[in-house]
Amino acid sequence: MFKTARFKMTMGYVLIVMILSIAFSWGMYVILRQEVQRFAQFQKVRMQHFIQEEQRVRPPYAPPPEIAVQFTNPDLEEEALYRIQIVFIGLNIGILILATGLCYLLAGNTLAPIQTMVDEQRRFISDASHEFKTPLTSIRTTFEVALRNKTLSLIEAKQLIQENLREIENLQALNDALLKLDVYQKFHNGHHFEVLHLDQIVESAIRKITPLAKQKKITIHKELTPVSIFGDASQLNELVVILLDNAIKYSPKNAAVTIITYKERSNAQLKVTDSGSGIPESQLPHIFDRFYRVDTSRNKNKVAGYGLGLAIAQRIAELHHGKLSVESKVGQGSTFTFSLARRSSAKET
Ligand code: ADP
């Protein structure tokens, strides 16, 4: 598809270049032809004048006027025009060859980002449909088997519905995450950006995540230096919740998670540290990719998730011109750092 598009685009560009080049050459040829004819005419008049002058001064030796007219030589004029034509044809052939090469490169460069985007979209659709397919097939099979079971009691049926409701809730969460990612992908600048206090955002994220932390008996330690930033409160809240949620999900029971905010030169920094499973070094570059889940014997299929949280967090960081990075050691834990430009505010000083 892209090869045909590149070919068509090249043809289009070349056509435009050649139309311009031929029109320019034709215009130049017409001007030069007029100049050659004018020059020939001027030469002819000058020669006649010169001969007449000669005749007047020395009448016995003056050549007949017909011979004088031959001095202007019409063949010479034709040859000059022919040479000009050849030069222009050669020039246009050269431009055609050069333009084809350059336009092919230009078309390739123009189409490259579109191709990357289309490939990415295809991969995204295929990954998303794969994530939906597995639980949907499982729900369908469970119901089909239950329908065929003539001895299924009401209690068993209710239990079955209960289990599948959980699967449906997960699918809903997946759908919400996909929609969120799509919305953030469309944003290019912050419509709801305002001066905010990062420490207050963290406080509100901690309140949101506390029930989950309590379930696993995880303690959240916080050291929050007041620091002002410019951003979207709900997006930043979501970013902090994602980091805290992961820190809790990938930590063992009774563990501790630390969250700190501080100033570093002109930046506001946020660090979330856990002592959980950690991430192998080889997989660190991929964890921000959509649908990427670390595949280790420690956490394979044990922790619920679709590999979209960090992709959303990364996108939010991008929208705030910030940077999200990670340091991790398997078995020792991970530290996620979010850094963005800070704003000066009266409350900070
Ligand atoms: P998920 O919904 O699977 O948690 P994320 O995009 O949030 O998706 O994370 C991607 C992967 O990165 C996770 O599957 C997990 O393997 C790894 N990961 C993220 N945060 C942590 C953490 N704090 N500790 C260990 N592994 C983590």
Mind explaining what this structure looks like?
With 349 residues, the chain is an alpha+beta fold. A hairpin with a 2-residue loop joins β4 (256-264) and β5. The protein has 7 helices and 7 strands. It has helices at residues 2-57, 65-70, 74-148, 154-186, 198-215, 233-249, 309-319; strands at residues 194-197, 219-224, 228-231, 256-264, 267-274, 323-329, 333-341. The mean pLDDT is 88. It binds adenosine-5'-diphosphate. Residues 246-247, 250, 274, 276-279, 287, 292-294, 299, 305-311, 334 line the site of adenosine-5'-diphosphate.
Tag the structure with descriptive keywords.
349 residues, alpha+beta, two-stranded antiparallel sheet, 7 helices, 13% strand, binds adenosine-5'-diphosphate
Low-confidence stretches: none
Q: Report the span from N to C terminus.
A: 59 Å
Bound molecules: adenosine-5'-diphosphate
Instruction: Report the sheet with the most strands, covering strand number, pairing sense and barrel closure.
Output: 5 strands, mixed
Enumerate how many helices there are, as a single number: 7
Mean pLDDT: 88
Coarse morphology: elongated
Strand order of the largest sheet: 2-4-5-7-6
Q: Which range does the strand content fall in? A: 5-15%
Write the element-wise H/E pattern from the N-terminal end onward. Answer: HHHHEHEEHEEHEE
* DSSP helix fraction: 55-70%
Radius of gyration: 39 Å
Total E-strand runs: 7
Structural class: alpha+beta
Give the secondary structure arrangement, pairings included.
Layout (H helix, E strand, L loop, with lengths): L1 H56 L7 H6 L3 H75 L5 H33 L7 E4 H18 L3 E6 L3 E4 L1 H17 L6 E9 L2 E8 L34 H11 L3 E7 L3 E9 L8
